[in-house]
Amino acid sequence: MTNQVYYRRWRPQRLADLVGQEPVARTLKQAILRKRIAHAYLFCGPRGTGKTSTARIMAKAVNCLNPQDGEPCNACRLCQAVNEGRALDLVEIDAASNRGIDEVRSIREKVNYAPAEGAYKVYVLDEAHMLTDAAADALLKTLEEPPAHVIFILATTEPHKLPGTIVSRCQRYDFHRITPAAMAERLAQICQAEGIVADPAALHALARNAAGSLRDAENLLERAVTSLGTPLGLEQVRLLLGLASEERVRALVGHILHGRVPLALTLLNAMAAEGLDLRQLHRQMVDELRELLLLKSGAPEMVPQAEEVLREQSALIAQVTLDRLLHTMRLMGQVNFRNDTPTSLPLELAMIEAAQGDAPRESSASNAARPATGGMAAASSSVASAARRPTASAPAAQQAARRPVPAAPSARSQPPAAPAPSPLPPTPSPEASPARAQTSSDPAVRLEQEWDGIIRTLSRLSRQKYRRFNPGALLRNCRQRRLEGDTLALEFTHRNYMERMKEEMDNPESRRNVLDAIIAALGITTPLNLTYTAPNGPDSTDKPRQSPLVQAALGMGGKILEEAEERHE
Predict the structure, then answer these.
(1) Region(s) of the chain under CATH 3.40.50.300
(2) What is the pTM of this model?
(3) Which superfamily does CATH assign the domain made up of 6-174 to?
(4) Cα–Cα nearest to 447, from 462, 431, 465, 426
(5) 43 - beta bridge partners?
(6) What angle, 0 to 180 degrees and rounded to 10, lies between the N-to-C axes of helices 307-316 and 246-257?
């Protein structure tokens, strides 16, 4: 007999064996006891939380020849057939590889056949969210009203991708991530049955690294036993997983919170030189900051640490404000290792910025007056104040640009002779604000002064305002522009940009937006004509279409194939 991996050998065989899913197990057990079995179930939740195992337990329980208090006996021939993977009345389908309409039609044809041995025929569709739309539609009627001897169980990790028509026809059960304590207890039971001596702290480290998936935790345990043997110690597990000790992580976080940049960088690079996984280190730092944040917010009962560790953490943050913690937590949470072989640079940048202490500061009186239980309100106010204040890393010029500068009286402030036809108000450039008082009244000169503002105004318009191209982006490639009377000549750097601009200007709405923005910026009321040139293309004149029918057709996506002069007889 081949040796099975731990997660298969120790798969739950009864509802009582499910780890961390007590509400689901209790409800299903009562349904089996009272013979209130539904025709379709939806098991959804993260991977490794027991969805497929529960489906198999249900298949055994509804067909068991000797059920015991709503549980399968695991001794009769039908239960043994399910455990050994040879049950004829249990059909497991991988919807990720059998997701088409042909496979669903095959199911619809076979559900009418009676069960071979038991009372029910159970269909388990794993990764049900992978079904195509056509396959889901084909399954609807059968899923809503299957034969009395058929039970459908759909398992998925992404229930939001399932059509609402599928979800509404099933009884939904949500499987939650398993807590590290529950996983560590299950790992201890496996170690006892396998004759493995393991430190409880090592099992807890494996459980925390599994991120709520019991299957991952069991795989990590088997990997550790295979690599390190028995007894299994904490330091060995940390070395295997690339984890740093909690004391060093806490010291690193303390250096950051207290602004000790040289010590923080030295410790970080020392751990990186030892070969520690920087992704794991980053996650450990975020977990430590979260625990400190919970302590500072007055919720120590939510921190799963021993009393002596809680005292160390409380002493660490005694002189640290909640704003400083929030600021550091936010920066560390934004660190992203994009490369497969990360360097310490992303962590170093976040640590240095966090150690600068640019968190929103409040008066000491307000900090002293804030109760320990007011952490959530303080977090909300700090986030709002952080959004209003510029960061210390921004240059002084950018901070000055954020301050509103009152515009001096200019020709633009004079009311035009007629109301501007554009719904787009001109958006002035912040960099040009100090020079508004010297704005020329000559439209040709003002065109150069306001050109960047025109481009920004057009670039900010939503994509739906244009047909295909963004005129603001195209006008950035206009190296020269000349205003001669009522004609604006645009010279592009390349013929491609010129042709794209011409094509976009064939759209009446795009043409209106561009002309309105230019007219509003120049402070004129007369309509403009546009001409286009490029160094490697012929000159072209953009003339507005005279016929309203042509304009309407262009607005609906039409194109002019050939133009002919209209003759009047």
Answers:
(1) 6-174
(2) 0.58
(3) P-loop containing nucleotide triphosphate hydrolases (3.40.50.300)
(4) 426
(5) 155, 173
(6) 20
Tell me which of 1.20.59.10, 1.10.8.60, 2.40.50.180, 3.40.1180.10 is the CATH number of domain 180-241: 1.10.8.60
- In this structure, how many other beta carbons lie within 10 angstroms of the beta carbon of residue 197? 11
* Helix, coil or strand: residue 302: helix
Q: Which of helix, strand or coil describes residue 7?
A: helix
pLDDT given at position 556: 66
Gap between the Cα atoms of 130 and 164, Å rounded: 14
Which tokens sit at 560?
């002019």
Q: In the block, which residue shows the tokens 């020079």?
A: 435
User: 227-246 b/e with 16+ CB inside 10 Å = b?
Assistant: ebeeebbbebbbebbbbbeb
| Beta partners for residue 232, in sequence order | 198
Question: CATH 1.10.8.60 spans which residues of the chain?
Answer: 180-241
Query: pLDDT digits over 354-406, tens only?
Result: 888 654 444 333 343 344 333 333 333 333 343 344 444 444 444 444 444 44
With contact defined as beta carbons under 8 Å apart, do 38 and 77 qualify? no
Cis check for the bond before 371: say yes or no (omega within 30 of 0).
no
What the block records as the tokens of 101 is: 């309409």
Give the CATH number of domain 246-336+344-358: 1.20.272
* DSSP conformational letter for 198: B
How far is the CA of 78 from the CAs of 14, 285, 443, in angstroms? 14, 50, 90
Q: Per residue in 286-337, pLDDT tens? A: 989 999 999 888 888 888 787 888 888 899 998 888 898 999 999 988 888 7
Q: How far apart are CA 110 and CA 94, in angstroms?
A: 17
User: Which tokens go with 125?
Assistant: 């569709």
As a whole number of angstroms, the longest Cα–Cα distance in the chain is: 106
What is the distance between the alpha carbons of residues 11 and 51, in angstroms, rounded to a whole number?
Answer: 11
Tell me, what's the pLDDT at 394? 42
Give the count of alpha carbons within 13 A of 524, CB side only.
20
Which residues 6+ apart lie within 8 Å of 299 measured at CB?
A: 375
Query: Cβ(238)–Cβ(280) under 8 Å?
Result: no
Rounded to whole angstroms, the Cα distance separating 186 from 11 reads 11
SS (H, E, C) 65-124: CCCECCECCCCCHHHHHHHCCCCCCEEEEECCCCCCHHHHHHHHHHCCCCCCCCCCEEEE
Q: How far is CA 18 from CA 6, 13, 29, 157, 183, in A?
A: 15, 8, 12, 18, 11
DSSP, collapsed to helix, strand or coil, labels residue 489 as strand
Q: Return the amino acid letter for 99.
A: R
**Rounded distance, CA 118 to CA 82, Å?**
11
Q: Are 352 and 261 in contact (CB under 8 A)?
A: yes
Quickly list DSSP for 466-486: SSSS-HHHHHTTEEEEEEETT
Rounded Cα distance between 265 and 354, Å, is 12
How far apart CA 429 and CA 401 sit, in angstroms, is 10
Per-residue tokens: 9? 């050998």
Name which of 403, 444, 450, 405 is nearest 427 in CA terms. Answer: 450
